[in-house]
Structure formats: C-alpha cells, structure tokens
UniProtKB/TrEMBL annotation:
InterPro entries: HK97-gp10_tail. This is HK97-gp10 family putative phage morphogenesis protein. It comes from Streptomyces cinereospinus.
Length: 124
C-alpha cells in the first residue's frame, strides 16, 4: 500500500513538472501585457496635455515570442516632440512622463510574474 501511494505521488509530481513550461509562458505573456498597460496608463496620466496630442501617441508593443514589452512614442510626427517634453530643451524645462512611469512599475514585474505562474500551475 505504501508503494502505491509513492507512485501516485510521483505521477502527480511528474504531471506538475510537465506543466511548468506552459505555465511559465502563460505567466510571462500575462505579466508583459499587464506591465505594458500599467506603464502606458501612468505615462498617459503624467504627460502634459496643454498642447498637441502627445498623450494619444503613447503606445505599447508586446512581443511574447521574445519576452519583450515596450511603451513609448513611435509616431514620427510626435517622436521628436516627445523627446523634448521628456528631456527638456534650452528653452523648456523637462516634463518627464515615460521614465517615471517605467520606474513606478518596475518592481511589480516580479510579483506579477510569480502570482501568474502560481495561478497557471493551479496553485491559486
């Protein structure tokens, strides 16, 4: 009887191990998307809205294949202006919106990933 329960426990452990790669991929995708959404929303809240539509040019790119998420401005009409706003010029002070948004959400990535991995492994 003891031998049977050991085998059942081993089978369960092996099934759990087989689920690890899929759980890691799903947790990574979930984390990348959640982080990009959070950074984009924070940057949109921080960006000055007194002139132009810079806040509407903020966008995110998530590449789950390479495990990469980016938030920024890729619109060529807004790109140069975005840099001037973020870094300032000799005639205009800086009004950073992207770097503070990245910094604000940097620490959440590890916690978000761990929680998502546990959920995808069936651990709640």
């Amino acid at each position: 009887m003891a031998r049977r329960s050991r085998l059942d426990g081993l089978r369960g452990a092996l099934r759990a191990i087989e689920r690890i790669p899929q759980a890691m991929d799903a947790a990574r995708t979930e984390t990348l998307n959640e982080w990009a959404d959070a950074v984009q929303n924070t940057a949109e809240d921080r960006v000055p809205r007194d002139k132009g539509d810079l806040w509407q040019a903020l966008d995110q790119r998530v590449n789950t294949h390479f495990g990469r998420a980016e938030v920024g401005v890729w619109d060529p009409d807004q790109l140069e202006y975005a840099m001037y706003v973020e870094k300032g010029t000799s005639k205009m002070g800086d009004q950073p919106f992207l770097v503070p948004a990245f910094n604000e959400h940097r620490r959440q990535v590890t916690r978000t990933y761990r929680a998502a991995f546990r959920r995808h492994m069936g651990g709640g």
